[in-house]
TrEMBL record:
<keyword id="KW-0328">Glycosyltransferase</keyword>
<keyword id="KW-0808">Transferase</keyword>
<dbReference type="InterPro" id="IPR035595">
    <property type="entry name" value="UDP_glycos_trans_CS"/>
</dbReference>
<dbReference type="GO" id="GO:0080044">
    <property type="term" value="F:quercetin 7-O-glucosyltransferase activity"/>
</dbReference>
<dbReference type="GO" id="GO:0080043">
    <property type="term" value="F:quercetin 3-O-glucosyltransferase activity"/>
</dbReference>
<comment type="similarity">
    <text>Belongs to the UDP-glycosyltransferase family.</text>
</comment>
<dbReference type="Pfam" id="PF00201">
    <property type="entry name" value="UDPGT"/>
</dbReference>
<dbReference type="InterPro" id="IPR002213">
    <property type="entry name" value="UDP_glucos_trans"/>
</dbReference>
<protein>
    <recommendedName>
        <fullName>Glycosyltransferase</fullName>
        <ecNumber>2.4.1.-</ecNumber>
    </recommendedName>
</protein>
Length: 464
């Protein structure tokens, strides 16, 4: 009897679906690269618009990158009632979320059908958190699915325990902020340190998306991928596994920051500064601080007497009057204000000694992985909880009092950069840097999580 020739199989096709916000896109895109590197065909999609900094999405449908043994493709969500990419309404996150929940399902269904017609049937969908419409499409079309939770496991646990009444929470948002909250696997917290959506109104669009996400986790999803690493949140991960199949796969960003990139204005300016001298200030892609706050930050940076690099988006530039810019030293050797920078490259620069951050989870993990101490300046959402973790649990910085003042900012920067605890803070920062890098290295905890997920999708190496 002759032996059959093995049949060549196409790799599974994993479709990644994100809400069109930069902080949601970046970690899912990094996950896509890591999945593709293990031999999967991966397609990334979202609704492209002018504010998204993903060049492949602006090159048109079908852009392809070879990654390791696999391929990463880019396709637009388009058609139906989706806004055009240059529509200014994308700049308002709440409006964008309402729109994408309404128009996204039809666009995603069309994309999935186009993939099948092109001979690339989608075999698995991974949707970001806060995109429950994508999970619904996958369910309705019979496509297996998983969620990528882009915030901390601690925050996921808080939301989950609150929704399902698994821990005692104050019933109202107006409760005393110092009331304790106890959740298995988490540090001691108070009501005032909880993420904002715990007490957001039920009709709030982001609260609605969160509840839909948490309800979908009970649809026997075999994977809840989390942008964290075991060494950072071991107790939270283990405790939540009693309820959900959480798998840490982060931190989800590329650790190699140069990769042939040329020098830009920020890098050249940082090169001119002494080692561990610069205060880096960035509040993410969404947070807007008020004019008075901006003035306090500007004056606070000026009176530190230290060089600073401050990212002020174009839509917030008007909050900084010329006299404030001048008094803060902008344009001099002591200060530089830019509209955008490659944050990971800046954090990795040896001149940077301190990061004044809004404490979004992407920025939190980037600071930890770069070993840069922080001054925590949270605004809303999960940032409040992340600030608590950074200062009191991870021990890598201090939290700026609310409301912030110029003198408080100066004191916090001094405490991190030259105070009696500076060396201890720097030592802990370096330890977290080493742990983060070890987690994503070959055989690390997050690397094994991605490997297990990929192996579950790939055809069996033996037999059928």
């Amino acid at each position: 009897m002759s032996q059959e020739t093995p049949v060549s199989r196409s790799p599974p096709h994993v479709l990644l679906v994100s809400a069109p916000l930069q902080g949601h896109v970046n970690p899912l895109l990094c996950l896509g690269r890591r999945l593709a590197s293990r031999g999967l065909l991966v397609t990334f999609t979202t609704a492209p618009h002018a504010s998204l900094k993903v060049k492949q999405l602006h090159n048109g449908d079908g852009a392809v990158i070879d990654v390791g043994r696999g391929t990463l493709r880019f396709e637009h969500l388009r058609g139906g009632r989706l806004w055009a990419p240059d529509d200014p309404r994308y700049r308002v996150p709440d409006d964008m979320q309402r729109h994408i929940q309404d128009a996204g399902p039809a666009a995603l269904e069309g994309l999935i059908r186009r993939q099948a017609d092109a001979g690339r049937p989608v075999s698995f969908i991974v949707a970001n958190a806060f995109a429950p419409w994508a999970v619904g499409v996958a369910r309705d079309m019979g496509v297996p699915r998983a969620m990528l939770w882009t915030q901390s496991c601690a925050v996921l646990s808080l939301y989950y325990h609150h929704l399902y009444s698994l821990a005692e929470f104050s019933p109202a948002a107006g409760a005393e902020p110092d009331l304790p909250v106890t959740v298995p696997g988490l540090p001691a917290l108070t009501v005032g340190e909880l993420p904002a959506l715990v007490y957001a109104p039920d009709q709030y669009v982001w609260r609605q998306a969160l509840v839909e996400d948490l309800l979908s986790l009970h649809e026997t999803l075999p994977w809840v991928l989390v942008n964290t690493f075991d060494e950072l949140e071991h107790a939270a991960i283990e405790a939540l596994r009693a309820h959900l199949p959480v798998v840490p796969v982060g931190p989800l960003f590329e650790f190699e920051t140069d990769s042939g990139a040329g020098k830009d204005d920020c890098m050249e300016w940082l090169d001119s500064q002494p080692p561990r001298s610069v205060v880096f200030v960035a509040f993410g892609s969404l947070v807007v601080i008020g004019r008075d706050e901006a003035a306090e930050v500007a004056e606070g940076l000026a009176i530190t007497g230290r060089p600073f690099l401050w990212v002020v988006r174009d839509d917030s530039r008007g909050l900084l009057p010329d006299d404030v810019l001048e008094s803060s030293g902008t344009g001099s050797d002591k200060g530089k204000v830019v509209a955008w920078c490659e944050q990971r490259r800046v954090l990795a620069h040896p001149a940077v000694a301190c990061f004044v951050t809004h404490c979004g989870w992407n920025s939190t993990t980037e600071a930890l992985a770069a070993g840069v101490p922080v001054v925590a300046y949270p605004a809303w959402s999960d940032q409040i909880t992340n600030a608590k973790l950074l200062a009191d649990v991870y021990g890598v910085g201090v939290q700026l009092p609310v409301p912030p003042t110029r003198d408080a900012l100066r004191r916090c920067v001094d405490e991190v950069m030259s105070g009696p605890e500076t060396e201890a803070i720097r030592l802990r920062s370096r330890e977290w840097m080493n742990r983060a890098r070890a987690a994503v290295a070959d055989g690390g905890s997050s690397d094994m999580g991605i490997r297990d997920f990929t192996d579950a999708l790939l055809p069996a190496k033996h037999g059928c």
